[in-house]
Specification:
alpha/beta; 341 residues; Dihydrodipicolinate Reductase, domain 2; four-stranded mixed β-sheet; 8 helices; UDP-n-acetylglucosamine1-carboxyvinyl-transferase, Chain
């Protein structure tokens, strides 16, 4: 079988092209070659977390590959059958556990047996879905589609120390069900949580205070983690609607005030709430692949990002699924497969 040829500089030109290609290659059995990997990033080519994803995918699918080296801009991947089992992977840095995990989960839904996967590295990273996002926002929607996974955060890991761990237990699924999310539904509750590890408690109090100034009264709690897991600071706001939960996260970094961290989170909440869309920008990215595997789906989102368009383009190369993007009253309705159009 001739490999599918992918350009890693396509669209937003990031690592998602590689991760989606790995997932879809394992599921379909179609080999691929990708060139110019992450060409639009400040540090192009494969980084440690990408290599971990590649080697993990190769292990669970008994794949043949070449180019899995630090800095490599070209990778060839030819999968074999996906095997369930016990797997443990370590990134060896604060690279994102969740991005590696999301590479493996779709393939393991179609494995020959249940799996348990443990990944060590960063669990709360900039520019990556946090472990909390997967557990509280993404996984409940996957369960509505027929997935029976459980995800457990065993230890938090922040940049630059890493050292976090997340564990997934995966049951194979016979088939995924289409999912429709046209509107968010009634808002049931809104809560804030601050994680602190090796950071002064005053930071959390200032973040919650500023958040309430911007969003109004809301329940907030502070969770102090062992100092050895830090330094780390994460502020999240969970909006629970009838039918889905949306998580908005800002990660504290050195030199950024608590007030600015709270502003980042509150601005994301307000921007999405004003739109009236069901799904925020980052959850949208994570829904199109399982919807395509289900043969259909639809959701409204506030932003049609380059990242989302690139994700859909890669999925189309492997599955031949159609996507539509329809502007409608301030939102974009994304249709997938049988619900496209």
């Amino acid at each position: 079988m001739e490999p599918i040829e992918l350009d890693g500089s396509q669209g937003e030109g990031g690592g998602q092209i590689l991760r989606s290609a790995l997932s879809l290659s394992m599921i379909t059995g179609k080999p691929f070659v990708i060139e110019r990997i992450r060409a639009r990033r400040a540090r192009p080519g494969l980084l440690r977390q990408h290599i971990t994803a590649v080697l993990a995918a190769a292990e669970i699918s008994q794949a043949q590959l070449s180019g899995a080296e630090l800095g490599s801009s070209t990778l060839r991947f030819q999968p074999g059958p996906v095997r369930g089992g016990e797997y443990r992977f370590a990134i060896g840095s604060a690279g994102s556990c969740t991005l590696v995990l999301q590479t493996l989960l779709p393939a393991l839904w179609f494995a020959d047996a249940p799996s348990r996967v443990s990944i060590r590295g960063g669990t709360h990273n900039q520019a990556a879905p946090t472990a909390d996002f997967l557990i509280h926002s993404w996984l409940p929607l996957m369960r509505r589609m027929g997935v029976h996974d459980t995800l457990t955060l065993l230890r938090h890991g922040f940049y630059p120390a890493g050292g976090g761990e997340i564990e997934a237990c995966i049951e194979p699924v016979g088939a995924l069900r289409p999912l429709v999310l046209d509107a968010p539904g009634e808002l049931v509750s809104m809560q804030a949580r601050v994680l602190l590890a090796g950071v002064a408690g005053d930071v959390a109090r200032r973040e919650l205070g500023r958040l309430r100034e911007r969003l109004g009264p809301l329940e907030g709690r502070i969770e102090a983690l062992p100092a050895c897991e830090g330094p780390g600071n994460v502020l999240s706001v969970e909006r629970t609607h009838a039918g889905l939960s949306l998580l908005f996260t800002a990660i504290g970094t050195k030199g950024v005030s608590a007030e600015k961290v709270a502003d980042q989170a509150s601005e994301a909440v307000l921007r999405h709430a004003r739109s009236g869309a069901a799904v925020e920008e980052y959850l949208a990215d994570q829904l199109v692949l399982p919807m395509a595997l289900a043969g259909g789906g639809r959701f409204s989102t506030s932003t049609l990002s380059s990242h989302l368009r690139t994700q859909c383009a890669v999925i189309g190369r492997f599955l031949g699924v159609d996507f539509t993007f329809t502007p409608m009253q301030g939102v974009v309705v994304v249709g997938v497969g049988e619900l496209a159009g």
